[in-house]
Amino acid sequence: MTKSLPTFSSKKIWIADLLLLLVAVVWGTSYGVAKQALVFYPVLDFVALRFSITFLLLLPSLRQLAQPQGRAALRAGLPLGLILLAIFICETFGLAQTKASNAAFLISLFVVFTPFVEWLVMARRPSGSAFLMAFVSLFGTWLLTYGGSLALNLGDGLILAAALLRALMVCMTKRLTHNKSMSTLALTAVQSGVVGLGCFLIAALFMRNGLPPLPSASGFWICTLYLVLFCTIFAFFAQNYGVRQSDPTRVSLLMGSEPLFGALFAVFWLGEQLSFLSWVGGGLIVGATLWATLPRSIFFARLAK
Question: Is 109 strand, coil or helix?
Answer without folding.
Answer: coil
